[in-house]
Amino acid sequence: MSDPAAVPPGARPATPKFELHVHLEGTVEPVTLLGLARRNGLRLPADTVAGLEKMYRFTSLDQFINAWIQTTNCLRTAEDFRQITVEYIGRVVALGWPPMSRPSSRPQSGLKDGDRAR
């Protein structure tokens, strides 16, 4: 879902929707992942959005785990987490869904519970 604003109003579900639980790392769009990797000086298996979209179309648990590792490895700073949080909330709000999750981070990200993006 690259452009939630492009969803025609009539295409939105009539029944209210919301997410009870979401892994924030799983909400990262390919274009964002590419930017995060570049900002943090990291290499990914693909260097284009189209290439990363292929990585996100997994058909096995191993491919899913690989995509998850590639994504989470690019999340290094509080700014990275702020960016993906703001983008995710923007998408769900555009769909009329209230965001209902508290982000968490992996210990190796270097972020602690009290850290805040500015």
Could you characterize the architecture of this molecule?
- With 118 residues, the chain is mainly alpha-helical.
- It has one domain.
- Helices cover 41% and strands 0% of the residues.
- It contains four helices and no strands.
- Helix 1 crosses helix 2.
- The two termini are 27 Å apart.
- The mean pLDDT is 81.
Most strands sheet = none
Low-confidence segments = none
Number of strands: 0
- Helicity, as a percent range: 40-55%
Shape: globular
Total domain modules: 1
The rounded Rg comes to 15 Å
Order of helices and strands: HHHH
Structural class: mainly alpha
| Number of H/I helices | 4
End-to-end CA span: 27 Å
Proportion in β-strands: under 5%
Mean pLDDT: 81
Outline:
The chain has 118 residues and is an all-alpha fold.
Main traits of this protein?
about 120 residues, mainly alpha
Write the layout of secondary structure elements.
Layout: H1 30-39, H2 49-56, H3 61-73, H4 78-94
Helix pairs in contact: 1-2
